[in-house]
């Protein structure tokens, strides 16, 4: 009762019930019951966390994005952070404001994208790393989870240590009784064996430490970025496969057209060749007939010429005496 009276209590901003400050949520100062009935949701556009105000309205869009959608329509992807929150132009409001304040964007050390902004202040870096907004939020959530896990594990260890200490005292009393009853050599070997059985996990590393959880979150984020790259490469390969199939189909069509053209040309050439052969044969026949007729004519002309010569000689013999 004295501890509850000494610790200060703070009222919930919704149900006005009083709770310690650690149990209230950061920002809106809500208790666990109100947080359970009105859960924290990520906005689908700007990816910022907000708490739903009513059970009837279960939309996953914050008030700012709702107003921007009504004013400017649905947003597009930001050219820096790739978040679908660019309502005006090609940049979201967060990246545009940070570019105006801190200059051009630089590459994030976690996701390797050009979406981080150097504030020239090492205190605002997360573990000395220059990260973008999404990576800083995910790393902060991971660190908060590790702190909660470590605090709960410390509480369990403290309770277990108390139970172990009481258990050890009982064992010591039992061991003292056994020492009085049996030899000292046997009694010296037994507690060592029991201690080795009780603590088989001595020297092992605690898997719930913050370093392990941070490394796990970094690995998960790298896996997610690699999966995105693999998806992009798969899409590129699919588009290239489509182009290859289209080019192959076009090549097949072109080859078929060329083959058809070649076949048609061969047919035309064959028909022309046949026509020329028939013409040549006809002309050769005509030449043969003409040569035969010429030979016959030449033979007939040679037989008629000697008869005409004899007639001329007979006429001259008869006419010569009359002149004298």
TrEMBL record:
Q: Which residues form a coiled coil?
A: none
Task: Give the Pfam families listed for this entry.
Answer: FAM76 (PF16046)
Q: Which domain of life is it from?
A: Eukaryota
Where is this chain compositionally biased, Basic residues type?
155-170
Sequence intervals crossing the membrane: none
Q: What InterPro entries has UniProt attached to this entry?
A: FAM76
User: Which terms are listed as keywords in the entry?
Assistant: Coiled coil
The residue ranges flagged as biased composition, category Polar residues, are 179-190, 315-324
Region of interest called Disordered, as start-end residue ranges on this chain: 146-209, 291-324
Any one cellular-component term (Gene Ontology): nuclear speck
What does the similarity note say? Answer: Belongs to the FAM76 family.
Extract the PANTHER family matched here. Answer: LD21662P (PTHR46176:SF1)
Kindly provide the name given to this protein in its UniProt entry.
Protein FAM76A
User: What species was this sequence derived from?
Assistant: Arctia plantaginis (Wood tiger moth)
């Amino acid at each position: 009762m004295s501890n509850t009276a000494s610790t200060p209590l703070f009222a919930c901003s919704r149900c006005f019930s009083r709770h310690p400050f650690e149990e209230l949520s950061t920002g809106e100062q809500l208790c666990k019951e109100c947080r359970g009935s009105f859960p924290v949701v990520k906005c689908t556009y700007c990816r910022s966390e907000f708490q739903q105000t009513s059970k009837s309205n279960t939309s996953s869009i914050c008030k700012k994005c709702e107003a921007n959608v009504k004013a400017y329509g649905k947003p597009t992807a930001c050219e820096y952070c790739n978040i679908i929150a660019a309502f005006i132009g090609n940049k979201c409001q967060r990246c545009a404001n940070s570019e105006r304040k801190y200059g051009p964007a630089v590459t994030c050390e976690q996701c390797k994208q050009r979406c981080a902004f150097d504030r020239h202040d090492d205190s605002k870096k997360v573990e000395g790393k220059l990260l973008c907004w999404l990576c800083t939020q995910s790393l902060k959530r991971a660190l908060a989870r590790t702190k909660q896990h470590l605090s709960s594990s410390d509480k369990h260890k403290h309770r277990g240590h108390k139970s172990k200490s009481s258990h050890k005292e009982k064992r010591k009393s039992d061991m003292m009784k056994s020492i009085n009853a049996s030899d000292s050599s046997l009694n010296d070997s037994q507690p060592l064996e029991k201690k080795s059985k009780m603590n088989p996990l001595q020297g092992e590393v605690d898997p719930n430490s913050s370093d392990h959880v941070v490394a796990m979150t970094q690995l998960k984020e790298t896996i997610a970025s690699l999966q995105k790259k693999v998806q992009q490469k798969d899409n590129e390969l699919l588009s290239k496969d489509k182009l290859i199939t289209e080019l192959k189909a076009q090549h097949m069509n072109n080859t078929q057209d060329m083959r058809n053209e070649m076949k048609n040309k061969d047919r035309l050439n064959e028909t022309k060749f046949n026509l020329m052969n028939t013409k040549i044969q006809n002309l050769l026949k005509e030449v043969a007939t003409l040569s035969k007729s010429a030979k016959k004519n030449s033979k007939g002309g040679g037989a008629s010429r000697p008869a005409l010569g004899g007639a001329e000689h007979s006429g001259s013999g008869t006419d010569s005496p009359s002149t004298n």
